[in-house]
Each structure stands twice: as C-alpha cells, then as structure tokens.
C-alpha cells in the first residue's frame, strides 16, 4: 500500500480523535441507534449470513468529525455466545461506501435505551461501560471494548 494512503487513513482517524474531549485518554463512540427484531440491516453493514437464523438486533455507536464518521455496529444473532457477539468497526466514506476496518467477536453491549435493564442497579463503572462500550486508543490504531483490543486495519482503501 502506498505510504500516502496509509498516512491519509491515520490522519482521518487522528481527526476523529481530536474531535473528542481533549481531556479523555481515548475517544469514545456514542450510542446512535437500536434496531430490534429485524431481518435486514437498513445501514447495509450486516447482510446475508448475519440473518441466516432469522431476526436479529443491531446496535450502532458512532464517532463523527469534519473528517468523516466511524460506526461500531454489533449484531445480536445466532453467532452470539453468552458474552460476545459479532461486531464491526466501519468507516463511512463521503461517497456512501462502508469500509470494514475491524470484524470480530466483542463483548455484548447493553444499549442505554434498553428498557429490560433500565431499573437494574449498576456501579459507576458499569454505567460508564453502558454509555461508552467502544473507544479508540489514544493513537487511533486500536478499537477498545472493555478488556478487548482490536487492531484497526489501516490497509483498507
């Protein structure tokens, strides 16, 4: 891959990081949407086999800046285990394309608007994880999900 392309991707991620709080060690994604019991993803991040078992739920978290948007999308489908589910970090291109930068199993999230868990007591750490289950490392090269860490594939065009 040409050096200028890798540098451009790193700069895009750096711009996204700068858009966040200057005090934060990492840049957090914020909750964007929940789609429950769907048979297709209107955002086009999940297709085909992701819905092989029927209906699924999709939860999206987003980070925006003038340089673009990153979305973390997690699908609750038959591939989930007791604590992890398929999750993708996707870069939204200005032409509408979606580039998958990370595709892996990550800790299952509980979206902040989920009424099933609204009344349960939680610690400050649990409440913070519920608000921000995904974040970028300070250098923008890793997606962090609690104690999980995933390298961001900068080789994607």
Any key phrases for this structure?
four-stranded antiparallel beta sheet; 2 helices; 9 strands; alpha+beta; single chain; 157 residues; five-stranded antiparallel beta sheet
Write up what this structure looks like:
The protein is of the alpha+beta class. It has one domain (3-151). Helix content is 15%, strand content 38%. It has two helices and nine strands, in the order αββββββαβββ. The protein has helices spanning 3-18, 124-131, and strands spanning 27-28, 30-38, 56-65, 68-76, 84-92, 98-107, 135-136, 142-145, 148-151. The chain has a five-stranded antiparallel beta sheet with strand order 2-3-4-5-6. Strands 1-7-8-9 form a four-stranded antiparallel beta sheet, covered by helices on one side. The radius of gyration is 16 Å and the shape is globular. The N and C termini lie close together (9 Å). The model is unreliable at 3-25 (pLDDT under 50).
Supply the number of helical segments: 2
What is the rounded Rg?
16 Å
Helix content: 10-25%
Class computed from helices, strands and strand pairing: alpha+beta
Task: Give the topology, please.
Elements: H1 3-18, E1 27-28, E2 30-38, E3 56-65, E4 68-76, E5 84-92, E6 98-107, H2 124-131, E7 135-136, E8 142-145, E9 148-151
Antiparallel strand pairs: 1-7, 2-3, 3-4, 4-5, 5-6, 7-8, 8-9
Briefly summarize what is shown.
With 157 residues, the chain is of the alpha+beta class.
């Amino acid at each position: 891959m040409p050096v200028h392309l890798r540098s451009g991707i790193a700069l895009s991620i750096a711009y996204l990081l700068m858009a966040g709080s200057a005090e934060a060690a990492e840049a957090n994604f914020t909750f964007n949407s929940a789609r429950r019991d769907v048979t297709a993803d209107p955002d086009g991040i999940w297709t085909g086999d992701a819905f092989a078992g029927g209906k699924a739920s999709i939860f999206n978290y987003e980070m925006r800046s003038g340089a673009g948007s990153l979305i973390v999308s997690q699908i609750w489908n038959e591939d989930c285990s007791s604590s992890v589910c398929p999750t993708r970090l996707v870069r939204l291109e200005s032409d509408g394309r979606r580039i998958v930068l990370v595709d892996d199993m990550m800790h299952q999230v509980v979206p902040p608007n989920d009424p099933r868990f609204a009344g349960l007591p939680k610690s400050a750490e649990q409440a913070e994880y519920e608000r921000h289950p995904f974040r970028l490392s300070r250098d923008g090269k890793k997606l962090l999900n609690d104690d999980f860490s995933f390298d961001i594939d900068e080789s994607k065009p």
